[in-house]
């Protein structure tokens, strides 16, 4: 019987490159084809179909990986105060998803909601634990079971993504709002939530972006069209930025 072997290193790298490209391109063009995503990754049509037989398979994988990244972003949160821990969870989630907020909205609310829901279970467990500790200390509400309240807190924070796109909120304002809504849903007064957030540098200031895809996904709103083309090219690795810009202008 043939043993299951790990994928070849280049195959695994190609798969990640395709998912990275999809994360960028679908945030900008939700209906982008598999061929366009392959081109964004600098790979062939044959390669993308070798990893993802159809668009649904790619979107499923993207939803799974994106959710796992949100959960992984919570690593290192060892805050003992349950209220500050909730705020940190909210801003860490925002920092992970903010660059692809448009795509995140359709993923969370769309046909892949079950994939996201299951993958975010560890995050919900963290939230519920903080809620239970806060309720036991008399600092957070205890009239709703922690598991249910964790979902309501999650929903409150996720609602910020849609609002940020609809209202054109800045990254800083959206990040603060995500933390504030999570805390108030948990039972903290809005004034107390504001005082906690505004008095804590880690909650107020977003960290420097280390995600190489961040500039490309933000280019839509923050830089002129010509600069967006340059950033997209640099993120996808398609030659030089100037070459990509020349190609775009000549279309």
Automatic annotation (TrEMBL):
InterPro entries registered for this protein in UniProt: Homeodomain-like_sf, HTH-type_TetR-like_transc_reg, HTH_TetR, Tet_transcr_reg_TetR-rel_C_sf
GO-annotated molecular function: DNA-binding transcription factor activity; transcription cis-regulatory region binding
Alphabetic keyword roster: DNA-binding
Record feature DNA-binding region, as residue ranges: 33-52
SUPFAM superfamilies referenced in this protein's UniProt entry, alphabetically: Homeodomain-like, Tetracyclin repressor-like, C-terminal domain
Chain coiled-coil ranges: none
Protein name as it appears in the record: AcrR family transcriptional regulator
Organism: Schumannella luteola
